[in-house]
């Protein structure tokens, strides 16, 4: 009796390429920022504004291509990955971007003000800084974890399981905080203008944290 022919499942190059995609997006993000840095120093507000659509698009592609929604399987479980169609991923990414550019931006703007950002001056640069930070850190987290209360309590408490999105967000916050250090030094150099060092620290911290999150995935912060 003839047997049905089976076609071997193709792995190898395709699987390796998919595994490399997050790192490719990280490299594109870093190289784009490096290219835009001279313009950021000379005109922060204008540069943050015209680079915003590219950042939103890059993060949206990263979410659709590299992230899968994670929902908890049990109160004590780490969660389960939920499959989504392409159209559902695109819609979810759009809604995530909308959330990040509105609610996420407002929250980070308030946080920047509480940590010393100018209140009556430099409003637009501060707002754009918060929007960039939100697209970097908030958008991937919301896309992956939705608004699942238990997971967000762990994220805000620094107790979430380490992975790219969480580690990238932590890295962004730490980088932005460290980036504030050169501002009050008073040497009056161009790169010390608000919020150049904050944005630079946020991008560096995000890319470093995201890479470390991939390397130490599955562990928890020692808090």
- Range of strand content: under 5%
Succession of helices and strands: HHEEHHHHH
Please, how many helices?
7
Number of strand segments: 2
**Main sheet: which strands, in order across?**
1-2
Largest sheet: 2 strands, antiparallel
Percent helix range: 55-70%
Shape: globular
Rg calc:
19 Å
Distance between the termini: 64 Å
Class by alpha and beta content: mainly alpha
Unreliable runs, pLDDT <50, ≥5 residues? 1-12
Q: For the residues shown, what is the average pLDDT? A: 84
| Tally of structural domains | 1
Subcellular location: Endoplasmic reticulum membrane
InterPro entries: GPI_biosynthesis_protein_Pig-F (IPR009580)
GO cellular component, one term: endoplasmic reticulum membrane
Pfam family, one: PIG-F
Note down, in words, how this protein is organized:
With 223 residues, this protein is an all-alpha fold. The protein has one domain. The chain is built from 7 helices and 2 strands, in the order H-H-E-E-H-H-H-H-H. The chain has a two-stranded antiparallel ribbon. Strand 1 and strand 2 form a beta hairpin. Helix 1 runs antiparallel to helix 7. The N terminus is likely disordered.
């Amino acid at each position: 009796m003839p047997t049905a022919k089976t076609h071997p499942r193709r792995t190898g190059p395709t699987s390796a390429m998919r595994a490399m995609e997050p790192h490719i997006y990280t490299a594109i993000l870093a190289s784009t920022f490096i290219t835009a840095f001279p313009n950021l120093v000379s005109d922060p507000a204008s540069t943050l504004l015209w680079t915003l659509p590219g950042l939103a698009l890059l993060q949206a592609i990263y979410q659709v291509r590299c992230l899968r929604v994670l929902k908890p399987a049990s109160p004590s479980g780490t969660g389960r990955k939920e499959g989504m169609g392409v159209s559902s991923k695109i819609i979810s990414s759009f809604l995530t971007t909308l959330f990040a550019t509105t609610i996420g931006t407002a929250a980070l703007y308030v946080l920047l003000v509480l940590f010393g950002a100018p209140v009556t001056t430099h409003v637009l640069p501060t707002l754009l800084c918060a929007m960039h930070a939100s697209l970097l850190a908030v958008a991937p987290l919301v896309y992956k974890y939705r608004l699942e209360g238990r997971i967000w309590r762990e994220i805000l408490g620094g107790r979430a399981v380490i992975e790219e999105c969480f580690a990238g967000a932590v890295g962004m916050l730490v980088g932005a905080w460290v980036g504030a250090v050169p501002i009050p030094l008073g040497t009056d150099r161009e790169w010390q203008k608000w919020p150049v060092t904050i944005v630079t620290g946020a991008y560096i911290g995000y890319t470093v944290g995201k890479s470390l999150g991939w390397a130490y995935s599955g562990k928890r912060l020692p808090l």
